[in-house]
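hiii, so i know i said id send this last week but things got crazy w the move. better late than never?? heres the sequnce for the chain we talked about at the cafe, plus the structure i predicted for it. fair warning i was half asleep when i ran it
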Amino acid sequence: MICLAIGSLLAGIAINHFRASPLPLVYQSPEQRLTAELTTLVEAPPFRLSDIDTISLNNFRAIVDNKSATILDARAQPFYEQGHVPGALNLSRDDFATDYRRLRSTLEPLKDKPIIVYCSGGDCHDSRLVASALLSLGFSQVKIFTDGWTGWTQAGLPAAQ
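okay and structure toks below
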């Protein structure tokens, strides 16, 4: 009887393992599953974004002045708190799952609206990773301000804290 039970258990685990979408062996709450999926999205390699998906300092400044898009700062929270583009929301790459859950009710209605993501600028790729994750989540008008925070401050533009 014990051999039959062990054999059945092993067969069930093997069948589950080879399914297209295996059932988890340990229960995860919907919140835990969402966190795991969001973390996977932001850790995935970024999409190759063409030049059309980036904007210049002048265009970004006009968008900020007109409040014609949602601005997302992809830098870690301590950097965001030290200063950020006025009106920007913090959706950091480092804590994407937590930040996305916090901003979800604000962001979900904006899936077909313009969103601009920036990070430190230069060699920083956090904005690309966050933009890729947003595109994977169904946001359709995501662009990147590649000059980032460095470009904004070097141009002498205002900062919020």
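btw The mean pLDDT is 89. thought thatd interest u
miss u guys!!
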